[in-house]
Design goal:
5 helices, mainly alpha, 138 residues
Length: 138
């Protein structure tokens, strides 16, 4: 950016900043009577360049894993239990009527295939869960 780009920038002030930056980059030391911009440029250049501490990401992940198992897990399990009870209640109340409607619409031969397909899906899901639990605890 040039000092002529913006009318609000004082050209003398701009040049003083540039001289202070060049003096700091050339290694000139700021004495008590040095321009303010030289001291500012040296202070910025001497600021410590620090990053996150060692193993920061691991420590954060451990902290989250330790504290994530709190109330959220308990509430999720309670809501899953409520959902299971609601599904069982709906199936016990309306299941026979639904089954008769499906059997009437698809025919009695198709209902057997529907049951076979549902059994395959359930067995595949159970096998995947069993394999996943075996990997978690070697």
């Amino acid at each position: 950016m040039s000092s002529t780009d913006d009318s609000r920038i004082d050209p003398d002030e701009w040049q003083a900043q540039e001289r202070g930056l060049r003096a700091a980059l050339s290694g000139q030391r700021a004495g008590p009577d040095a321009p303010d911009y030289l001291r500012i440029a040296q202070a910025i250049a001497s600021a410590p360049q620090s990053g996150p501490p060692m193993r920061f990401a691991r420590d954060v992940a451990v902290h989250i894993a330790r504290h994530d198992a709190g109330i959220e897990r308990w509430v999720s399990r309670a809501l899953l239990g409520v959902l299971a009870v609601a599904v069982l209640a709906l199936v016990s109340l309306f299941g026979p009527a639904w089954w008769r409607a499906i059997e009437h619409a698809a025919g009695s031969a198709a209902t057997g295939w529907l049951l076979a397909g549902a059994a395959c899906v359930a067995l595949s899901w159970l096998a995947a869960r069993w394999r996943a639990s075996g990997r978690k605890h070697p």
